[in-house]
Design goal:
Length: about 120
C-alpha cells in the first residue's frame, strides 16, 4: 500500500510525457500526409497506418572502391510512413514510403522505401 502513491505519480508523469507532442513531429506528419494525398488518384481513400521516428540526417562520406563520395543533407529530416489507399483499379493497397523534409520544415518529398531524395540549396 505504501508504494501505491509513488507508482501512481510515475504512471501519471509517464502519460503526461507521452501525450506531449513535438511541434516538429506534428509538422512532419502534416507535410507527409499532404504529399501522399497530392500523389494519390483517390485522396479521399487515404488512411494513415504509422509513422517512423523523425530523424535529422547527418552529412556523411561514402567510400566505394576506395573513392570518397560526400553526401550533404543540409539539415534535412527523414521519416518513413505506412498508409493505405485505393489504387487505380479500386483495390486497397498498403505502401511504405520514405520522405525527406527540408530543414525549414516546409516541403516533403518521398518515394519508395529506400529511395533518397536531396533538396536543392
Amino acid at each position: 500500500m505504501k508504494y501505491l502513491f509513488p507508482i501512481a505519480i510515475i504512471v501519471m508523469l509517464t502519460i503526461a510525457a507521452c501525450s506531449h507532442s513535438d511541434p516538429k513531429i506534428e509538422k512532419a506528419h502534416e507535410l507527409v500526409t499532404q504529399a501522399v494525398k497530392d500523389s494519390l488518384k483517390d485522396p479521399e481513400s487515404y488512411e494513415s497506418v504509422s509513422f517512423s521516428e523523425l530523424l535529422k540526417l547527418k552529412d556523411t562520406v561514402k567510400v566505394i572502391d576506395g573513392q570518397s563520395y560526400p553526401e550533404t543533407f543540409n539539415g534535412a529530416y527523414e521519416i518513413a510512413h505506412t498508409y493505405r489507399s485505393k489504387n487505380a483499379y479500386g483495390g486497397v493497397v498498403t505502401r511504405s514510403d520514405v520522405f525527406h523534409i527540408d530543414s525549414a520544415m516546409t516541403n516533403a518529398k518521398g518515394g519508395f522505401l529506400g529511395q533518397h531524395i536531396k533538396f536543392n540549396k
